[in-house]
Amino acid sequence: MNDTIHAEPATALAPVWRTVLADSHRALAEVVAGIADDQWNLPTPCAEWTVTQVIQHAAADQLAFAQALGVGAGPAYDPFAPSGSLTGTAADLVTAALDEATTAWATVTDTAEAVPTPLPHGALPTPVAAVLCALDAAVHAWDLAVATGQPSPLTDELAAHLLTAATGTIEPLRQWGAYGPVVAGTEGSATGALLNYLGRDARN
């Protein structure tokens, strides 16, 4: 972990990370609840992933964060190779994953300076790690909302916090496809800047 790189974001995010995490989890749950029965196989902004596959990926990532924090056994499948086939409902899958992640983050005290993560970075400052977990839920909520014609779940306030954690930190993750190359854009909002940075076209 590079303490110099993460010190400023950690300080900025320390007062808000629990709220950012809760808001992002809520966004994912609400968007999944709004998906219609005929929309599970629609394409999404995540290249080559359908709505169902994005849901599987998002749920698995939450389980992976929970496992890193010592709660649960982690995902039973590769988050970056989602099958596109569910044995239960999408809502049940996401709810269980979010509940496990929430339980795991509740074990983290405000005095914990750093926590382990499932990311290539290993341990990160607690506020940065938590907001990266939130980022995964929130951006995939946006992917699903775009794919299924729902309103964006992102606000500029939430996006600004997510961008603070993401900037520089997500670079090793682009190779796996969840975050694409930076999209050149002229969006003046925090939401637009976040989406473009994560490889999404903010004009969607």
Automatic annotation (TrEMBL):
The molecular function GO annotations come to:
metal ion binding
Question: What SUPFAM superfamilies does UniProt report for this protein, alphabetically?
Answer: DinB/YfiT-like putative metalloenzymes (SSF109854)
Residues spanning the membrane? none
User: Could you identify this protein by its name?
Assistant: TIGR03086 family protein
Q: Where is the Mycothiol-dependent maleylpyruvate isomerase metal-binding domain?
A: 21-145
Pfam families per the UniProt record, alphabetical: MDMPI_N
